[in-house]
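To assess whether the prediction recovers the assembly geometry, we first specified each molecular entity separately, as shown.
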Amino acid sequence: MNAIRTMVLSLVVLFTNLAGAAAGEPRGTGDLGIVIERASGSLAIVEWSGRRVLGRVEGLGDLSHASAVFSRDQRYAYVFGRDGGLTKVDLLEMKIAKRVVQGGNSIGGAISDDGTLIAVSNYEPGGVKVFDAVTLDLVADIPAAYGPKGALSKTVGLVDAPGRRFVFSLYDAGEIWIADFSQGPNPQLTRFAGIGSQPYDGLITGDGRHYIAGLFGEDGLSHLDLWAGKPEPRRILEGYGRGEEKLPVYKMPHLEGWALAGGRFILPEVGHHELIAMDAATFAEAGRVAVHGQPVFAVARPDGRQVWVNFAHPLNDTVQVVDVPSLKIIHEFKPGPAVLHMEFTPRGDEVWISVRDADKVEIYDTRTFAKRGELKIAKPSGIFFTARATRIGL
Amino acid sequence: MNAIRTMVLSLVVLFTNLAGAAAGEPRGTGDLGIVIERASGSLAIVEWSGRRVLGRVEGLGDLSHASAVFSRDQRYAYVFGRDGGLTKVDLLEMKIAKRVVQGGNSIGGAISDDGTLIAVSNYEPGGVKVFDAVTLDLVADIPAAYGPKGALSKTVGLVDAPGRRFVFSLYDAGEIWIADFSQGPNPQLTRFAGIGSQPYDGLITGDGRHYIAGLFGEDGLSHLDLWAGKPEPRRILEGYGRGEEKLPVYKMPHLEGWALAGGRFILPEVGHHELIAMDAATFAEAGRVAVHGQPVFAVARPDGRQVWVNFAHPLNDTVQVVDVPSLKIIHEFKPGPAVLHMEFTPRGDEVWISVRDADKVEIYDTRTFAKRGELKIAKPSGIFFTARATRIGL
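The predicted structure of the complete assembly is given in tokenized form:
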């Protein structure tokens, strides 16, 4: 009888634990995010509403320059590593759901507007690969072949556009391509050649209308209106740095962070300690803002009233805040050594800032600029919240 | 021995069920939503990514004209009923988490940008009440007293603005009020009188900058620029219907659905079979679109390229789609009797349409206009997806 009694008790304990472990507390995923821990190839899973770290996931490979997109249900992050790794991370169970190494050297990715396709931009071999969002099985391989010998170009500035499309630029070729998956897994490709010298990154506006590639080989940008019946690339802000001495470039600005706010784009210039404002309707220059150093990210608060700017080494301990209507700097502070990234809560009341060399993420009120919290995270770089799943081009 | 054996087996079954029921599968909440079932005071919980109904929740009282907002974690819906009921619904456990009856006759509500406050707009007694988002405890009561005798006005057009603020209009008083909770639970009130006759609804733009109230007592709208140092209400589109015979109004248009797209507002007119386009920078008229009937909702697809319109009784079996750049109707179809509401997926690839008198919700591809799915739901009216939690003013 004692043996049976023990067995019954064991069963009770066993199933009680199972119920607890499998279930945890049920929880929503709208307030989750990840912070890339570059040095250790891992990431912290965070909850922005509670300003806390929930757990960590390891084994993601080389996360230099890593970025992420999210599934429609905001349960999974797709993390793009520099080593060609594409890792699907389950934010609820805090583990890797699937991982493939899909290229040799890659940078950035995107998720289709219907949430079914993940595209990755590769330097080596140059091109874009597209995967099924559930299984990570390869759906399409798009080598970026150009010129008479069919050399492969590095691809950059990969974004999603409405209608199950991806848009990206060919660095070596000076081209922009659209891959349209609206008819199924074999994309229709549209190529635009001669768009400018060495496009190094690109952005798409939140309405999915304007694709803009930054050019490294010349002062200027290339613009494509995707709403046009026959889109045609055109040069904008040509020669914006003409007559000024160009400074050495320690770190390229990021275009994904470019801000569209109050009817103006606010863009970091390459090789100048300036932001340039561009009228969003005419694409003509609409002013400049002298800033602390070479801007890396210039990110609009979600309401567009402010743009927050961080800087390249060796001035990367500082953040400046620009008031958009007046184009004046209204706040400046020094979170600490190596400010790498900034991410706003979806409605913009707070901002998270990674301070790599202080091993912390700081959290600020965006109206009072008061510090609201601080999290210990090892060598933090990119911060990505699940609300990105609800936006075009993020 | 048999008794003990039975007990062990029962325990196994019991705990297995417990584990299954309590846990379910862990799941994200970014692709959830609710459909109001007005006739039965209940709602259907839906998953838009899978185009299916997950369950139902009953006991929400009078849901005529009901609307909803969502918690930051996208786990809870706050449903505003006509009978003054404010119900917090747990979308994961599919049950009512909390319910209070906070007024006698109410219409609409909002959630503060930091997710901590729920505000409800009341006709009777006229004013706004504000509740703690977690507990639904009363935080502040704002009677809409006006004039020398301190009569209470119906309140309408209640929206959230950045900085822990709510903005609303006083129908009987012709005023707009801002309640600022940035300093704590006692709001600072700013009142604007003489804004126009009988404001009947309001909207705030997605950047939280422009509050616009529609006027029932005169042809025109009232505008408040919340970015101005000293905001001042001004009349816009004055006398837009001048010289035309006003038609009888069977159903008031909804302003929350008003579309800002491609640099223009697209607004339904009151008492006319027209939409009016207004330049978003100058607030001057920028064109008109003759439509099938009296528009109720004119909702922009999230990319702003299209506006979808439904109509008042007796022409409410029809939907028209307007191409924003050309202001031309590019598609028209008849989903069925009593088309009441439309909700887009967050990136706009699909739209859900409630067809009340056919007891169904239809799902369409917004590019091909092909039907993608149909759900049986009893007397569906409003459809609300959790992605609203990530937007200002929704």
